[in-house]
Amino acid sequence: MKIKLRYTAQLKDVAKAGTDEMELKENVGIKNLLDQLVKKYDKEFGAILFDTKGNYRNSNLIVINQSQVNYAENSLLKDGDKVTIMSPISGG
Fold this sequence. Notes:
By secondary structure, the chain is of the alpha+beta class. It has one domain (2-86): Beta-grasp domain (Ubiquitin-like (UB roll), Roll), CATH 3.10.20. Helix content is 28%, strand content 25%. The chain has helices at residues 9-15, 30-41, 43-49, and strands at 2-7, 19-23, 61-64, 67-69, 82-86. Helix 2 (30-41) runs antiparallel to helix 3 (43-49).
């Protein structure tokens, strides 16, 4: 299955792109997707999403098709889903 991805703020900077597409196997949840993205974009991307103990940083938001989801619920993805991952915005 194919999904579309969108990144904001620091994630966009690390990925060097605001959008991406990925081919995934069926029955893949959001946790597996984020693991694959960390492998694809390196540990700096992972450090934004996870703390040093591997716990998901709840300051990041995950949206699937315009509905915010909770990382812990590990929502399953479907072909054609649009996933937005928003890291916190800082600056001033």
